[in-house]
Amino acid sequence: MSLTLTLEKSTPLLRPFLWLSLPLLVLATLFFWPLSLIVEQALRDNSGNIGLQTFWQVMESKRFMAALMNTLQIALLATAGCLVLGSVLSLILVFIPFPGSDLIGRVVDTFIALPTFLITLAFTFIYGSAGLLNGALMSLFDFELPPVNFLYSMQGGDPGGDYRVYAAGDAPADGRIAANR
């Protein structure tokens, strides 16, 4: 009588982690490292000490709160508009066949497939202060300032203005932030 042993081939435990190491290294390099630098800069004051004083100073400024509220307002209104428009358009495309409905469906698929930053970049190139539309209108009618100005806020213009530099950690020398708090 002979006994035979069958050994199962063991899978190395390290192999799945090796496959994950390269994507995690890229993610750490391109996302977590810059994020850690931003967090460090937000927590460091002018003398180089780490604390929450600079962070709270930015959070309490009226300009920052106005920009934050503007961002939330635009996000909520855009979401509501997309829900209404998308629901109506989807019902029309599904239940009411008409010539060109396939084309509209493909255009919608194109917007879904494109990265959102490309759409934002395209809107900026067309409607921005130095975009195609404003460039054409300024050259045709000799305007000094761009007439189309709705990309950055509901009222037009950039709500952050010069204060974006301050939010990044460099306070203006003339004390404008303290006056607007």
Automatic annotation (TrEMBL):
Keywords: Cell inner membrane, Cell membrane, Membrane, Transmembrane, Transmembrane helix, Transport. It comes from the Bacteria. One of its GO terms (cellular component) is plasma membrane. The chain crosses the membrane at residues 17-39, 72-98, 110-133. CDD domains: TM_PBP2. It is a multi-pass membrane protein. Residues 68-181 form the ABC transmembrane type-1 domain. It is found in: Cell inner membrane. InterPro entries: MetI-like (IPR000515), MetI-like_sf (IPR035906). One of its GO terms (biological process) is transmembrane transport. This is 2-aminoethylphosphonate transport system permease PhnU.
